[in-house]
Amino acid sequence: KQKNRIKALNAEKEKLHGTIETMAHEASEVKEIARKLVADLHQQKKNAQSQLQSEMDAVKAEMEQLKSHHQNDMSTLLKEKEELRKNMEKEHYAIEESKTLMKASLES
Q1: Cα–Cα distance between 39 and 106 in angstroms, integer?
Q2: CA geometry: angle 51, 56, 57, nearest 5 deg
Q3: How far, in Å, CA of 29 to CA of 38, rounded?
Q4: Average pLDDT over residues 37-49
Q5: Does residue 67 have a pLDDT over 90?
Q6: How far is 17 from 7, CA to CA, in rounded Å?
Q7: What is the mean pLDDT of the chain?
Q8: Tell me, what's the pLDDT at 107?
Q9: Angle CA(68)–CA(69)–CA(73) in degrees, nearest 5?
Q10: How many angstroms separate the CA atoms of 45 and 52, rounded?
């Protein structure tokens, strides 16, 4: 009877060893899958950061271009304003001179 019990225990022991080996193999596979997932997430993060940096660089370049256009537009507008001021001044003097000439011709 004890021999049968020892046999049964040995069979159970072998079964447990098989289960432990299977679990160790599965744990190794899970660890490898987790390692690959972490590596993939790191790569995705790196790609996203790179993409974001590219987009930010593009926005910065566009802002610089807009700033340059704005400065050029302002410069042009200031020049045009100055030309208009000068023309209005000339017209004012021309009108004053015409008034003076008309007054003089009416007086004579």
Answers
A1: 98
A2: 100
A3: 14
A4: 98
A5: yes
A6: 15
A7: 95
A8: 84
A9: 120
A10: 10
